[in-house]
Every structure is written in structure tokens, then in C-alpha cells.
Amino acid sequence: MKKLFFINIFSMFLLASLATAQDAVSLGVGALGFIEPRSRVLKLTGNSAGERHTVAELLVQEGQTVPAGTPLAVLAHHPQRKADLAAIEARLEALDAEQKKAQAMESFRKKEFERQRDLRDRGASSPSKRDAAEADWLTAKAEIESLIAQRKQAVAAQEHAEQELKDSIINAPFEGTVLRIFTRVGERLSEQGFAEFADLSHIDVRAEVFESDIQRIKEGQRAEILLPNDKKPLKGS
User: Fold this and answer.
1) Tell me: the pLDDT tens digits for 131-142?
2) What is the helix (H) or strand (E) element at residue 141, kind and residue range?
3) CA nearest to 196, candidates 166, 172, 227, 218
4) Handedness of CA 103, 108, 113, 115 (dihedral sign)
């Protein structure tokens, strides 16, 4: 059945016998329309705005049904995005190590300043030593603040790099079927995008009913759908 819907995804059909159980068959309403997935057919384009990247690896075939989140294709800039993210993560580790050392130094400088201050208050040390110890402590505090600011920038860069890495792989937005692939390995994504994708497990029938018949249509009425070259009608409501 899925193959039939796939081949005739927009085939015309005759929607006949739209009638309640009390109505006679002769009172049914006929209409032309289309069979289409409830999800509608989506064109997967990737998320890199304004950039048409090259497909480096194709992971699916036309007609293949996959779970939500399944990688469908890998774009050519994926290795670079992965390397960019690794470099930022390494930078974060280095900043964390520097901040740990800076915090230890700040703690030491603070204690030294407090010691020199107490000695100065007792007249056992000169004001210059106290001032020098305070300057060293303030410098250590400023170093920590600088490292914190650098880490915030690195975290923001990490989030951006993670998103770019994610965008370098085209994934299935939901469980569905790859209907048609537009871009193959070595080709740039076209205006059509990478592929057409749809959930074929739920199919809708869209009927074009004449205005003169619309008052005879009610929710829940039984329907028969006649497909081209298929003598047995499909049942619906």
C-alpha cells in the first residue's frame, strides 16, 4: 500500500458515496481530489541559511523509511565543523585549568594582604608592603574576572559550533519515508533542497466538493475512494 501511495502520491481519485448510513447510495456526493500524506511532503534543505553545501555522504535510499532523527546525509563541511568544536572544547578545558590556578593565587594574595594589613596596624610593617600586597591581590582578582569573561565567550562559541555541527548533518524530522532524492554525493544542494520526505503511515484524502454539494457533507460520513486502475475502493470517513 505504501508503494501505491508513493507512486501515486498526487494521483487523481474519485471520492464517491459520501453519505450517512440513512442515505441511499444514489444520494452520495462525488468529487475529485488527491491522496497525500498527513504530514504533507516536506523538502529537506538543511539549516545553513544562504549556503549551498556539498553532499559528502548519502546515508539513505529513495523509498526507505527511517525513524525520527535518523541521519540522512552528511555535508562536506562536517569535518571542519567537528574540528572547530573540538578546538573550542579544548580552549574551555584550558580556561578552566587557568581559572583554578588563578583562584588559588587570589586566595594566597588575599591572605598575604590581610597579613600585611594586620602587621601595619600593629606597626610591625611599612605602608608600602601593605599597599604592594593589596595591589597583588587586586591583580589576582582581575585575572579571575578576565578568565570568567573569556569562558563566557567560549561557552557561547561552543553553543554556536554545536549548532553548526548539527546543521552539517541532515536528519529525518520525524518517522517517515524518503520519497525522492534531489542531491547526490558530490553535488551542491539545489533550490529544491536535498530530498522530499513524508510520513506515509497516515494518509489523507483531499476532496474538491462542488459548492452546490457542500451542504450535504457532514463530519463522520462514510466515504469510498476509487483509485485509478484499482477496482476495489478504499473505505474512509
Assistant:
1) 999 999 999 999
2) helix 127-167
3) 172
4) positive
pTM: 0.70
Cell of 195: 530530498
SS3 198: strand
Give bridge partners of residue 44 from the DSSP assignment.
195
Q: CA nearest 174: which of 145, 201, 209, 141?
A: 201
Comparing C-alpha atoms, which of 224, 229, 193, 189 is closest to residue 30? 224
- Among 5-14, 65-74, 167-176, 218-227, the minimum mean pLDDT is found in 5-14
Residue 206: band (very low, low, confident or very high) from pLDDT cuts 50, 70, 90: confident
Determine the angle formed by the axes of helices 78-121 and 127-167, rounding to 10 degrees.
160
Contacts of 169 (CB under 8 A, 6+ apart): 71, 73, 74, 75, 78
66 alpha-carbon distance from chain centroid: 16
